[in-house]
Amino acid sequence: QNSTGHLNGIAKIELFVDDKEIFHYNMDKFHFDDSHHINLHQDYETLKKKGSHFQRCYRADGNRLDNYLNKLNGKLMINDTLLHKIRLQVSDAYQNKSVLEFDLKGGLPKVVANIPHYPKPVWHEHEENFLKVIVNERKLLDENAHFFFKRKMLEQKSLYRSGNHAVFVWDLRNGLPDSVKVGQYVERFPFTDLIHPGKVGKHTNLLLDIHFPKQAIFDTLYLKTKTDFILSKDSSSLSFEVHDPFVPLSSFVYLSLNTKGLLKNTDKFSAYNTSAGYRYLGGTWKNNIIDFKTKNLGKFTIKKDDKAPIIKLAKKNRKQIQLVVKDNLSGINTFNGYINGQWVLFYYEHKKSLFWTNTELSNIPLQGELLIRVADKCGNLAEMKAKLK
Predict the structure, then answer these.
(1) Engineering a disulfide at 382: which of 91, 227, 292, 309 sits with its beta carbon 3.0 to 4.6 angstroms away?
(2) How many C-beta neighbours within 10 Å does residue 274 have?
(3) How far, in Å, CA of 59 to CA of 42, rounded?
(4) Does residue 292 contact residue 281 with C-beta atoms inside 8 Å?
(5) By C-alpha distance, which of 204, 225, 121 is closest to 166?
(6) Contacts of residue 6, Cβ cutoff 8 Å, sequence gap at least 6
(7) H/E segment holding residue 303
(8) How crowded is residue 341: how many other Cβ atoms within 10 Å of its Cβ?
(9) Which of 297, 376, 266, 276 has the alpha carbon at shortest distance from 329?
């Protein structure tokens, strides 16, 4: 919008090939219940990694938004060697339009893979439904790969070569292999289960149960978990990983972790998502088992928080009281302020950790004995007393 800092967004995207429309996205209406599907319309992984918003010019698998008006859904098939005219039209809600035009020439497949240097002779990459195994040691380029799947060994030739690399491709829709061997080198895969959209899914190992409700995922999830549970030296935290944070979820996923033999005393221990800092998830304990839920996969920690919040009096006069209240981990749960035993309304600014009074909305004079009580989400209580003159 002109003369403002607002980003009002894109209302319409149209994609044409040789003047024939193959994709049409129109945000003229939107059901609130479908709002989480916008994570499939945009590139969710790039958003999480870089904070950049990219909208897809095709309809991703599992996207149930009804804002797509072309049945082709952006699928482009070129089976010739001709020059094709591509036109992309993007409009906002006020019909302001930008147009990008370019040519796309068909041709016979020429595989040129942009494969970065990697120190291991054999490694793997996973993208959507495909597992790519890459070999970069010259003496192994003529070797076949041996995939280990359901206690069987399946031999496969390389699909293509690019420079000094040989590439093998496995379709994960056919099943989840345990590992691959090329020459003397073995590469193990982290896949532990296959979770289907629209169905209740569950994964269980010795310590961890993961429950996926029917509508939790949008698309097929090739679940990756690490069997390593890392216990800190002072036994104050237990860390583990479930897949990665770049998969959007439609609803909560439920986890149950058995800490018996790992944590002796679970008092004041809670679950946190630690993919980007510490995000409190809480949890309930029973017989050394903690149950908690999350809307983001990735890294988790069961950690002890036995430190009370810190309260600092930043400003006091007859017009206003200001307090800075910080907590080291679980976060503020309750805040109460009293003057001469009478409860006083305080306002809160989360980003600045600031609490303050507003004398215009309170008839209580800011004089006498001030008492502040703050508790964090693990039950640690802090108090501060001061005299207001």
Answers:
(1) 309
(2) 16
(3) 10
(4) yes
(5) 121
(6) none
(7) strand 298-304
(8) 8
(9) 376
Helices (H), 180-242: none
Residue type, 141: L
Rounded to whole angstroms, the Cα distance separating 325 from 372 reads 10
**In this structure, what token pair is assigned to residue 80?**
């010739």
Q: What is the DSSP letter of 249?
A: B
Determine how many CB atoms are found less than 10 A away from the CB of residue 46. Answer: 13
Between CA 335 and CA 345 the distance in angstroms is 10
Which of 275, 294, 274 minimizes the C-alpha distance to 283?
Answer: 294
Number of residues in the chain: 389
Distance CA 137, CA 77 (A): 35
**Considering the entire predicted model, what is its pTM?**
0.85
**Calpha distance 181→172 (Å, rounded):** 17
Residue 175 main-chain phi, psi, to 5 deg? 135, 165
pLDDT per residue as tens, the chain (389 positions): 565 455 557 899 999 999 999 999 998 887 877 788 888 899 998 999 998 989 999 998 888 888 999 999 999 888 888 999 999 999 998 889 999 999 999 876 565 555 566 678 999 999 889 999 999 888 999 999 999 999 999 999 999 887 788 999 999 999 999 999 999 999 999 999 999 999 999 999 989 999 999 999 999 999 999 878 899 988 899 999 999 999 999 999 999 999 998 998 899 999 999 999 999 999 999 999 999 999 999 999 999 999 999 999 999 888 899 999 999 999 999 999 999 999 999 999 999 999 999 877 667 788 899 999 999 999 999 999 999 88
Q: Could you identify the residue written with the tokens 């104050």? A: 236
CA gap 56, 65 in Å, rounded: 13
Whose structure tokens read 């909208």? Answer: 55
For residue 37, with 0-12 CB atoms within 10 Å meaning exposed, 13-18 middle and 19 or more buried, which class applies? Answer: buried
List the structure tokens of 18. 């040789």
CA distance 95 to 315: 51
Identify the residue whose tokens are 């999830």.
221
